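Last lecture ended with a question: if I hand you only a sequence, what can you say about the shape of the protein? Today we answer it with a concrete record. The protein is Magnesium and cobalt transport protein CorA. Below, first the input exactly as provided, then the predicted structure, then a couple of comments.
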Amino acid sequence: MPSFPSLPNFHKTGRAAATARPRVPVPTARAIVDCGVYVDGKRLPGRFTPQQALAEARGTDSGFVWVGLHDPDETQMNDIAQIFGLHPLAVEDAVVGRQRPKLERYDDTLFLVMRTVSYVEHDMHAISEIVETGDIMVFTGPHFAITVRHGEHTGLSGVRRALEGHPDQLRMGPPSVLHAVADHVVDSYVETTESIEEDVNEMEEAVFTPNSKVGIESIYQLKREVVELRRAVSPLGVPLERLVNNQDLPVPTEFRRYMRDVADHHVSVNEQIAYFDEALSSLVNAALAKISVQQNTDMRKISAYAAMAAVPTMIAGVYGMNFDYMWELHQRWAYPAVVALMVVLCALLFRSFRRNKWL
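The predicted structure:
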């Protein structure tokens, strides 16, 4: 990609800012996780640089190179782009990351962007992250497949080993890598939704259990994470549909059959996420209704106790007016009688409130 020189920075006082320390370029090999050459479904022995691997693959009829990259910077990605002839726009997306899932075609090169998700173990009643997201980009072209991964989860080393154990799939060439990575990403969607389903079921049980205390914040947190999951998962449906049904893409027919299975799993995940969203919306309403009922119950108790306290307060207020002509003031039985009257009236009120389930 073309780079533009940065303009000098000056302080408002007119003095030039201190010159930034030059950035030491990191070798491209640091970003390469693995680089292998595959011919007729089998990996060739030995270690190759990307240039050597591409030259070796081009010397065969069915060979291709698979380069795996992890968090490459702009310089590293530009080096790979020059070797394999990648389009600058696709290279920019691969460096920046956080892209919406999409499928782009640049001549004979396909560029697929997928969002990865990972379930984070957490306390159900604590506000914490539940879904961690990342990115995986796949370039496929004549004689090469390049995977670019951002994030610390959803590694592809296991995908490579599993695919190397199926030479019949590897014989499809670079599309086999595209299918394997897409299948791996969608499988991670399935695992994540299964874990979130357990959270939703636990939350439902807590909300509808009598006398349980569930904070509305934890439900909102889970719902927010489900929304984040939907934003990562749902847009991938359009690229998968294109890979299955668009006959103009340079992929073999057998690849479309494999991708149809991936697309079916993706549809199931989307339906499950939609159910989570609806269920959590219902749980929010149920929790709010439960809180409202509890508040009404508390208000009735407060009102009942206030009514019982009002009776002795009223009687004591009458005797606190200091009138001279109150005949019972001079009787020995007056004070015990008034206290007994207060107790009896309060007991009658307490019995009435208890009978009406206010207390």
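Comments.
1. The longest strand covers residues 109-119.
2. The chain has two domains: 28-290, 295-355.
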